Amino acid sequence: MSRDVKRNSNVLESSGEEEILSSSKKLKESSQTKNEKDSSDFSTGRQSGQPSFPNEYAGYSFQHDTSITTIDTLDLNSVCAETFFDRYIRKRKPCILNGLPPSGGKNKDDVPLNISRKLLEDLAGTKTIQVERRFNRTENFGQNRTAKRQVQLSISDFLKALLDHTDGDSTSTNTTKENELYYWSTQEDTDDPYNIPCRQLLDHGHIPENVPIAGNLILSSCNLWMGSSEDGASSGLHHDYHDNFYLLLQGTKRFRLFSPDCAPMLHVYGTIHHIYPNGRISYVGSEAREDGVPLDELKRVNDNNPQSDEDEEDDDEEEIVIGKGFDYVSDEEEDDTEFDENDQTDDFDEIMGVRTAGEGDELEEVNGSKIPHQGTVDDTHPDSFSVINPCEANQDALFKKFPEYKSCRQIVVELKAGQILYLPAGFFHEVTSYSNTNDSVQTNDMGNCHMALNYWYHPPDALGESDFGSPYKDDFWKKAP
Fold first, then answer.
1. How far is CA 340 from CA 47, 321, 333, 346, 352, in A?
2. How high is the pLDDT of residue 187?
3. Which residue intervals are annotated with compositional bias (Polar residues) in the record (predicted)?
4. Among 167, 196, 249, 378, whose Cα sits 20 to 30 Å from the Cα of 422?
5. What's the whole-number mean pLDDT along residues 158-182?
6. Is residue 375 helix, strand or coil?
7. Torsion over CA of 98, 100, 101 and 107, rounded to 10 degrees?
8. With contact defined as beta carbons under 8 Å apart, do 140 and 236 qualify?
9. Weakest mean pLDDT among 8-12, 215-219, 323-327, 417-421
């Protein structure tokens, strides 16, 4: 069961979730293979190979605001949380904020964020993390989570591989840039919203518990991202399930943004079930409410049915990868796997089956240590990932293959170290990350890498002018301890 869901056993009104689930089951049974994506009808909320679905998006849209070529940029300290809610969160309008919140630790309200290599190694150097490794620098990260692409390293060993270039293979044509083959994104889910090393950083007063300008939004997770790429590494085009405050500490990021109402034209791998007014996108087989509560879990709570051990084991497995997105989107098992909306890991965004190293598992040597691969057996794609590559050099060929994509307005923005990107749930984005030692807010011992801290919040579904104090229609997330 989702961390957030299993902590909340309060009975809520079902609001017709049983009927929605039944309808969704029929929708899934009637849908064709979800990879059949040759054309789509934007106005009716329909993709080729899919039945129509409600496209109720009512927020800010690049499709409607055709005069703009960028998004708003404002100083973090120039606006209070309530004003920010009214101007951006309530309107579902992305923006860039100049400045970062202070570390927020005890007696450290004026101490700036500074996550150094020494700090990471001192606080969590021996902690094991899961790292994605690509086979060459031309591949995108996040395209799959196969066993050979997922490796387990201590934080210290990862930093050595990333920053010291100590694991180069003399037979590889990429030897001089072996560090660019590694990427640290979010980690396997636990009951703690602060993943390694965010928990350690928080407990020692080095990161804030929340982003203050987020106001009364409820936190889902906090994650650290780190990689290296001088030429730029792409995440691929996808959307997240949460409102994201993305704090860039080092490097630069280029974002290609599309508003949620473009979803029918962007050819996602999943079968869309519903696009809600706040931009939250729900998929057949992983139906969720507008605020992200999974409908099957909500029905179970409403029916006051305890979860079986088998169901809980399945849900715990799902939690490992739900919500992986932004820089990095992880893959899911296909078809009938149910959705667990905890969104613990950029990004990303559905279910995978994880296996640990056992008899017969292949081991890889990194920095002199034998480490197990960990990940899925399949090369599958998350529902929230698009088949379209907006970075394709031959745009004419892309438009010919996906003619409706040409009508999607994209906004390209650059995020620099010391800035925050606020991106509401459902906004599609392709992120290209660049390492730049000179573009950093760190007292720099981090070398030539890009590093970011992100805070994911459950998407608000109460967006009236007076809803700053209570941005959710009920207290499901609020009652989660």
1. 24, 9, 13, 16, 11
2. 57
3. 41-53
4. 196
5. 57
6. strand
7. -130
8. yes
9. 8-12
Within 10 A of 373 (CB to CB), how many other CB atoms are there?
A: 19
Among 456, 466, 461, CA closest to 476: 461
On the question of pLDDT at 50 being above 90, the answer is no
Cα Dmax for the chain: 63
Helix (H) or strand (E) holding 274: strand 272-275
The DSSP code sequence of 336-371 is TPPP-TT----B-------B---TT--EEEETTEEE
- pTM as predicted: 0.76
213-245 per-position pLDDT tens digit: 999 999 999 999 888 877 777 888 999 999 999
CA geometry: angle 457, 462, 466, nearest 5 deg: 115
Per-residue pLDDT at 360 exceeds 50: no
Q: Look up residue 382 and give its two tokens.
A: 């998350």
d(CA 187, CA 195): 6
Cα(86)–Cα(203) distance, integer angstroms: 32
157 contacts: CB under 8 Å, gap ≥ 6: 366, 367, 369, 371
Whose CA is closest to 156, among 211, 118, 99, 109?
118
Token pair of 322 as six digits:
């739900």
User: Sheet of 243-250: strands edge to edge?
Assistant: 72-75, 95-98, 419-423, 243-250, 450-457, 219-227, 182-184, 128-133, 150-154
List the structure tokens of 481.
């301890």
**Which H or E run contains 131?**
strand 128-133
Contact (Cβ atoms closer than 8 angstroms) between residue 162 and residue 182: yes
Give every CB contact of residue 138 below 8 A, 6+ residues apart in sequence. none
Distance between CA atoms of residues 231 and 234, nearest Å: 10
Domains of the chain as residue ranges with CATH: 3-457 (2.60.120.10)
The whole-number pLDDT of residue 447 equals: 74
Residue 248 CB neighbours (<10 A): 26
Average pLDDT taken over every residue of the chain: 75
- Residue of 8, 4, 24, 16 lying closest to 299 (CA atoms): 16
Q: Residue 419 belongs to what H/E stretch?
A: strand 419-423
CB 330 within 8 A of CB 236: no
The tokens describing 238, both together, are 């996808």
Q: Locate 99 and state its tokens.
A: 């400045």
What's the residue count for the chain? Answer: 481
CA distance 372 to 186: 18
**Cα–Cα distance between 129 and 152 in angstroms, integer?**
6
In degrees and rounded to multiples of 5, residue 365 shows phi and psi of -100, 125
pLDDT (0 to 100) of residue 19: 47
**Predicted confidence (pLDDT) at residue 354 exceeds the cutoff of 50:** no
Neighbours of 337 (CB within 10 A): 17
Decide if pLDDT at 334 tops 80.
Answer: no
